[in-house]
Amino acid sequence: MKKIAACVKKDFLDTLSYRLPCFLTVCGIVLVLVILYFLPHSFVKRSFVLNPEGIRITYFNFILSGLMLSMYLVSPFAAFSAQIQKIRTIGILEALLVTPTRFITILAAQYIGYFLFASIINIPILLFISYCLKDLVVSPNIFAIAIIFTLSFILFGAFSIFIASFIIVFEDGKPITKAIIGCLRICGNIYFPVTILPKSLQMFAYSLPFSHIFRAFRMALFANYTLWDIAPYILILLAFALVLFPLSVWSLNCALRKAKERGTLAKY
């Protein structure tokens, strides 16, 4: 834990040292806030009501609740993938592997660091979303939200390790990163309910953990569902986590072994 904490601190300070990217990130957040402010007053009316997961909410609130969780999940995932790509490109991957710290520990620290940075930098958007949803969120199931959030963190950590494995072997992880984020946006229950998709895409969406994450999150956030009511979706996420996380660690070990056999770790 001390090594992870030290790595997280180093990565966090390193990220803050780049002032221009941080400034541009803040500008992007301001732009998002402006869009979110004017969105319900333009083409997305508050009177337009969907009925996802048996919950009666407006489309605007549907999007806001999706953004609330996706900011915590997608931002660290994308930043982590870009950082691993950078490490692979500049040729310091081999140096990291010969340090006393296990490579999986380094990856975990990187992912946690980006997660904490995303949590802090997105606070203005989260406060705005919380203000917009204050009348709708009456009695959220905090315990269920915490469980869903933890399982989601583990699942996206597993996908991040898969990305790292892909980059180690194939050197370029941008295609698979874009594919995963694209699947999340289309089949993730973020911007629109999965139920409006064609049947074939619905089947595909339900075979991925993304749609179950956001469905369970909205049930815990908006409705008076008990933990027992949300338990089927939590069990689905738990099953995904129990399968994908060990599989991702195994894929990382296989990728490292393959790269060592080829002698491509120091290649750039």
Summarize the helices and strands and which ones pair or pack.
Layout (H helix, E strand, L loop, with lengths): L1 H16 L1 H20 L10 E2 L6 E2 H32 L2 H5 L5 H19 L1 H10 L9 H29 L3 H14 L11 H8 L2 H14 L4 H36 L6
Antiparallel strand pairs: 1-2
Helix pairs in contact: 1-5, 3-5, 3-6, 3-7, 5-7, 7-10, 7-11, 10-11
Task: Give a concise summary.
With 268 residues, the chain is mostly helical. The chain contains eleven helices and two strands. The protein has one domain (2-262).
Overall 3D form: globular
- Strands in their spatial order, largest beta sheet: 1-2
Give the end-to-end Cα distance, rounded to a whole number of Å: 32 Å
Overall structural class, as computed from helix and strand content, comes to mainly alpha
Number of strands: 2
Number of helices: 11
In total, the number of domains comes to 1
